[in-house]
Amino acid sequence: xxxxxxxxxxxxxxxxxxxxxxxxxxxxxxxxxxxxxxxxxxxxxxxxxxxxxxxxxxxxxxxxxxxxxxxxxxxxxxxxxxxxxxxxxxxxxxxxxxxxxxxxxxxxxxxxxxxxxxxxxxxxxxxxxxxxxxxxxxxxxxxxxxxxxxxxxxxxxxxxxxxxxxxxxxxxxxxxxxxxxxxxxxxxxxxxxxxxxxxxxxxxxxxxxxxxxxxxxxxxxxxxxxxxxxxxxxxxxxxxxxxxxxxxxxxxxxxxxxxxxxxxxxxxxxxxxxxxxxxxxxxxxxxxxxxxxxxxxxxxxxxxxxxxxxxxxxxxxxxxxxxxxxxxxxxxxxxxxxxxxxxxxxxxxxxxxxxxxxxxxxxxxxxxxxxxxxxxxxxxxxxxxxxxxxxxxxxxxxxxxxxxxxxxxxxxxxxxxxxxxxxxxxxxxxxxxxxxxxxxxxxxxxxxxxxxxxxxxxxxxxxxxxxxxxxxxxxxxxxxxxxxxxxxxxxxxxxxxxxxxxxxxxxxxxxxxxxxxxxxxx
Length: 522
Known about the structure:
By secondary structure, the chain is α/β, with parallel strands linked by helices.
């Protein structure tokens, strides 16, 4: 018996429809963390607010017990909302409920990376400047939202500080290698940590992934310790980097108190979840901080100035309505235009700038010509030694003298100092320095586009950066001499008012990518 073609066609389309339905259902069954934002809180009782969140979540689920299981955070102090594990269908249902302003997916942010305050006109002496008139920030509580803190640093001593401010409502939480009794004091008066959002994205404990991390307020990366000490580090005298940049290290408000909120973790260089950031901001409002500091940003494409999907902008808005000043980094994606971040009108957005200090490293040629490069070389003087520029028949024409194309070559580099050129960023210089050092070379002179950062090189290996003009002059010397030689001297710190400040090369630039015609007044 033959089956009519029309019936076969119907069966085929039914099977296709059933397959698509199953595929859609399976995709819709997958849960991810969403933020349900409800705006200004309607009650002052935190428990009542949390209960209302459970009820709202339960209204789109099969049972109320599921609401308790799926709730990640309840935002109940500075504003109202909650984070929960939802399917796309459940998220759509919640978005349609009365009182729900916005439902947004969890988003991953990333962290952004002593003499600055003297340069800004806030030196320790004299006693009549702004720093002293503000009592060095005494009584001010700065909330730092970052990778945590390393409490043993001398920057966080509480020597000379009075009692903890009476209006403080926060706490220190315990965790791996962090004891509140031992590690909190009159300087670090609060320390909390938030990880549920990151765990929801990555699904495992971070310290089991092979990366160094602490499930506590302790800092495993160093970024949070750096930003906290920059804002409010205590005076630490007689410090230097192996004798370079000698002086006193301190923060902008050395007598201010610190409340640490660890929201960023050692995942892919430092990542932070928006649901964790929002929970920390909500808690910090309740803890009564006076200032919030966030060196955190998103990835391109960027949010607009006011975007209801931007957790930092949303949380900081409610912080400002409670009288808290919110300071955020502009990001480190420069020098390209339209890369500035955290541009909401209520946020004080801070760029990076140069200061009046340089690290001079003198390069002396065999003709006694002296050029000034930049480095952090703290070893012994090198030279006079042979100076070479990698070129000739053994190298491809396009690779001659190119820093990033250098590879270990004992014949060319052993016992010599090497000159190379690059148009790339610092990574090219690091690669070249490693190749020369591995070949028994004595040092590297890298000619590059002027910038405000130095490539990370070994402390005992001279890795001196110069501009193209100086690099070309050195190259001319090499080609005009039969046996060119050079001497590299240890780095010297030079501070002078003749160095004008400008926005650092790496600092993100405006205008805002969404509304470039609008300038931000802050």
